[in-house]
Structures are given as C-alpha cells and as structure tokens.
User: Which sequence fits this backbone?
C-alpha cells in the first residue's frame, strides 16, 4: 500500500538524480519487480559512480558527492534524503 503521489515523487527524485550524474551518451535504467508482497524499484546508471564511503552518506541531507562540481550539476543535495524519508513514511 502506497500513496501514489508520493511514490511518483520518490521515483522522480531517483531518476532526476541518476540523469543529472550520467553524461551523454550514458544510460539510466529503471526496473520494477515483485518481491513477495512488495513492489521494488531499482534505478541504475552509467554515471560517475560512488565509492563505498560515498554510498554510506548518499541519503544524508545536503550531502554531495563532488562538492567542487556540484553547482554545475545543480540540485540542493536533498532529493535523495526526501526520497528516502517519503519511502519510509508513505510507502511502508
């Protein structure tokens, strides 16, 4: 059970983030699968990638992977934080 508006917002945040960090002619994929009674969405891309250290912080508010180039990519550093919060509140 999920709020469809919030589910779309979560997916939009994930896809926009993936597109923002994937240079042309890169690729962004989204897959949907059913896992028991849960629908799982997975977004992957051929973008700049993340180190294990960066992965551990990616959902923190205002966290940016490359602070020196973040202005060029835009964004406020909160999209993934919002997506995670919405997933915990509106989707579970």
Assistant:
């Amino acid at each position: 059970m999920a709020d469809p508006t919030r589910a779309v917002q979560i997916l939009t945040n994930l896809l926009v983030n993936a597109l923002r960090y994937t240079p042309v002619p890169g690729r962004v994929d989204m897959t949907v699968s059913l896992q028991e009674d849960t629908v799982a969405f997975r977004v992957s891309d051929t973008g700049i990638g993340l180190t294990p250290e960066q992965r551990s912080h990616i959902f923190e508010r205002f966290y940016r992977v490359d602070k020196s180039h973040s202005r060029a990519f835009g964004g406020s550093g909160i999209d993934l934080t919002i997506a995670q919060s919405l997933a915990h509140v509106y989707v579970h």
Remarks:
- The helical segments are 4-20, 52-55, 70-73, 79-91.
- The radius of gyration is 14 Å.
- Residues 4-91 form a domain with the Heat Shock Protein 90 fold (CATH 3.30.565.10).
